Amino acid sequence: MAATTAAMLALPPHICIIPTVSRTSPAAASSYCSLSSSSLGSFSSSVAAVRLTHRRRLGVVRAIAEPSVVTKAPTIEESEAAVVAGNPPAAPPVPAKASPPPHTPVVSPLELVHRPRRNRKSPALRDAFQETILSPANFILPLFIHEGEENSPIGAMPGCYRLGWRHGLINEVYKARDVGVNSVVLFPKVPNALKSATGDEAFNPNGLVPRAIRLLKDKFPDLAIYTDVALDPYSSDGHDGIVREDGVIMNDETVHQLCKQAISQAQAGADVVSPSDMMDGRVGAIRKALDSEGFTDVSIMAYTAKYASAFYGPFRDALESNPRFGDKKTYQMNPGNYKEALLESRADESEGADILMVKPALPYLDVIRLLRDNSALPISAYQVSGEYSMIKAAAAAGMLDEKKSVLESLLCIKRAGANVILTYFALEAARWLCGEP
Questions:
Q1: How far is CA 115 from the centre of its chain?
Q2: Which residue in the list 306, 328, 392, 414 is annotated as catalytic?
């Protein structure tokens, strides 16, 4: 073995001998290596190729150096002259025409000037001409948080949890950022003991949401944090505003509380406050309040066209924020109305909104398009809890392919005109878009 190693080290740098398990004696292998080294030394430095072949008798791989055979390539002029002379180089033959199945009728081609299918005939063409592209950057991930340390599953929303505001929340944001989702919106599950008729806990500087914002900004300074501005998580009545004794939702008094809530969130470090209450005039009042406190750079995402929808049920269960009585039809929009969304959008835009939202998303694609066509502001759409749970339930029953259904629904929402989409599928969709299973 020592002789073999010495012979290998003595070889020129451009020659390599790779020993294998010898089926002969070490002396024979050593003798062969020494012989190879001395004989190869006679080749000149012009050796251009080294060929490794296996010598079965000795059980070693030997290196044989050979002079290279150089074939001169024709010049461009020579190649062109050959083609002009009728001697083009060989190329693959014309592909054979595919045969139709037996009994296919023979017909004359339709006289069509345009055949749209031509632009769909291959993956390369379909990808080249795709008008709407989904990206993880288009997603805002809604996160439910609570005071506990452990994550608590939400029965009506498989795969979603009330996250412990410290460890669970941080871990979920880590996962989101790993797949390119860098925007979240926070929804608190507030202890019943802290709820009141006027929702004062909404602007407690040490409340659940301000603490969570400060924690996230400390860990992820560049994370875009959206917040919900509404009283229903903090109201003992479960409504978005203060309820008068006759059941009327008080508008202006509620707006006063919302301004204090928005300032509290901005002080904690929120990037975007999102009034979801649907009170009249709340966008202008919040903008004025933020500016007066020096938060001119905090954006407002207005829930502009928020409909009184049946698709919110799982969300309200997650936060235990169902109305104690009545419904929300006196402040949320009638699902049968379309043009009313224009009134709301014009009001929000004139009052200083930076982003306009439609909620829910998939049942209201026409409204998303309406706002898109009538405003230069960014449009957001909320794929709400009911939309999420429907797809999850159908997929669990084997009725739908979950991945395909999720990505199609999100693509349609964006195609309708949404710039960003709030979706509980944000992590899964982003992973799929990144090519993960």
A1: 34
A2: 306
Tell me which residue has tokens 């508008």: 251
User: Which candidate, 59, 72, 68, places its Cα nearest to that of 33?
Assistant: 59
Instruction: Give the span between the Cα atoms of 91 and 232, in whole angstroms.
Output: 73
8 Å CB contact between 186 and 317: no
Q: Is the pLDDT at 310 greater than 70, yes or no? A: yes
Place of tokens 């880590």: 174
Evaluate whether 28 touches 58 at the Cβ level (below 8 Å): yes
Q: In this structure, are residues 380 and 140 in contact, taking their beta carbons and an 8 Å threshold?
A: yes
> Of 189, 328, 359, 392, which one is the catalytic site residue?
359
User: What phi and psi, each to the nearest 5 degrees, are found at residue 41?
Assistant: -65, -20
The first and second tokens of residue 346, run together, are 């014009």
pLDDT band at 356 (very low <50, low <70, confident <90, very high): very high
**pLDDT tens-digit map of 202-213:** 999 999 999 999
- Angle between helix 365-374 and 340-351 (nearest 10): 50
Q: What tokens appear for 358 in the block?
A: 């439609």
Round to the nearest angstrom and report the end-to-end CA distance of the chain: 50
Rounded Cα gap, residues 6 and 33, in angstroms? 9
- The tokens for 201 are 């806990």
Mean pLDDT of the chain: 87
**Can 306 be counted among the known catalytic residues?**
yes
Going along the chain from its start, the domains and CATH numbers come out as 2-66 (no CATH), 136-433 (3.20.20.70)
Structure tokens that stand for 123 in this block? 């993956």
More confident residue, 321 or 334: 334
Report d(CA 357, CA 434) in Å as an integer: 27
In this predicted model, what pLDDT tens digit does every residue of 4-50 receive, in sequence order? 444 444 444 444 444 444 344 444 444 433 334 334 344 344 433 43
Q: Which residue has the tokens 């009034």?
A: 275
